[in-house]
Write the structure tokens for this entry.
Amino acid sequence: MPIRVIRGSSFPEVRHSYLLHLASSSTNLPAMSHDHIDVRYVAKLARLDLTEEEVNTFQSQLESIMNHVESLSEVNLPEDLHLDDNSHLAMMRDDTPHESLAPELVLQNAPDQAQSQIRVPKVVADA
Amino acid sequence: MTLTQLRQQFISGETTPSKAIEDLAAGISARDPQTQAYVSYDLDTALEAAGKADLSKPLGGLPIAIKDNINVFGQPCTCGSNFLVKGYTSNYNATAIKKLVDAGAIPFGRMNMDEFAMGSATENSALQPTRNPHDPTRIAGGSSGGSAAAVADLTAYAALGSDTGGSIRQPASHCGVVGLKPTYGRVSRFGLVAFASSLDQIGPLTNSVDDAALILQAIAGHDPQDTTSLNTPVPDYSAGINDGVAGMKLGIPAEYFGEGIHQGVRENVEKCIKLLESKGAEIIPISLPHTSHAVATYYVIAPAEASSNLSRFDGIRYGNRATNPDDIIDLYHQSRELGFGPEVKRRIILGTYVLSSGYYDAYYTRAQKVRQLITRDFKQAFETVDAIISPVTPTPARRIGTCTDDPLQDYLSDIFTIAANLSGIPAISVPCGTTAFDGADALPVGIQILAPHLGEQTMLRIAKAAEAVRS
């Protein structure tokens, strides 16, 4: 299908200045009261590799965001609040088979495939 | 030109769907190199559909631009991310697209956006920043910045966007167009690439309130493929839209008119409120006392849901894949590191942190409870008023390249739009004037109308009155 991609390039000067600015963060919020965020550990949980620069940038930015989030601890919570108030929004549908995507459509985007299946690196460790 | 006007021209024979699409393509060639609203478009497929258009249908032959996170069969769907620029072509239609096409419309164009809808400026697009047609040195807003800018630039007659914390209404306000976020569950999310599933909604961006009603009519309704879809009848959104505001009670929340609002924004919004009052609306001061906690609540819940939703981008089934991983875990790490931009990584880490062992109750559970208090504020307010009026944003569009060094400051600018997503109520942004700001002579200002759950008809009626008093 002919897709005419009419723009793939960025405005490099804008992106560049944005990325540079990411390196310095400033806020006027009070000092943090939450625990120190171990960015590298959390990134590992999220399956993200970060560069040293990203770790340092995110460290200060996330702590400033969490300082703001700390304001929620000041909210007086009435005892009659229940978290299942919206349970009607998450109903399960009937467990019955229905039409779904054809295998060739599912495989259409898979970056690595063989024998009509998606190929992945070995998951089971050697004995 | 509005969709309604274009439809009349189709019916009178003044123009044809094919000609309308060719006009758009010419407009894109002429103006989009500056605005950068489009990521891509597929002229051949659109013209083929135009040749078969059924003009008897409500949206017969009308081209509608689509935010690049809503799946259209056979089209790219980059979500503004390097993760999906290569290696992903939609293999199905989102329900909203299926409904648009069933109503006769032609999806045309993939609109730029902040990566995975995370941002308020369309500067977080990995592809390009979108520029505001009213002043190309300024942001179009976001995350549906491409949709808003194209509609304002008349390179699209109308567009679909998605709104998780204001991503339809804020760019609509910055670009001087109408942007509608429906009630949560009113429009199916099936086929919308998920950011924060309890907040996301698809909605229209248009050049008139009538057009917004027309598109909402087509895309609203129950969908068994979205378990959060509401199974309630869809009313006629155009019926009574011209009935005016006489006798309506409009609440003005003190918390939305405090310090920090640009004077020009305040004056335009207050002027519009006075005009609505002159048309017979009763203006009632109200309070939404938990407003100040909305941003903190949102920036726990939205990243938490995003960190879960974006786990699907693992390099296995589609999109970016690392070439020489050591093992499968390394494959995940490398594919995601190379595919995601800084804002997406920041929010995934934030969401993973607030959900992690030992912090879940302190942050996530507490945020969900505060969310209920914010919802209660609205429920109580709507016991005495029919709708609530506020600004959409504290300031007009800022310059591109400013304010991005401190994400929290950008997050705080979402203060007026976030609460509607947290509580699931519908809200619309309607242009209400222009103001001088930061060296610019006339930047658009929007007024926001918030209505009770499933109160779209009331909301559209007030929006139409606000649109009428401005003109």
In short: Chain A touches chain B through 71 residues (CB under 8 Å).
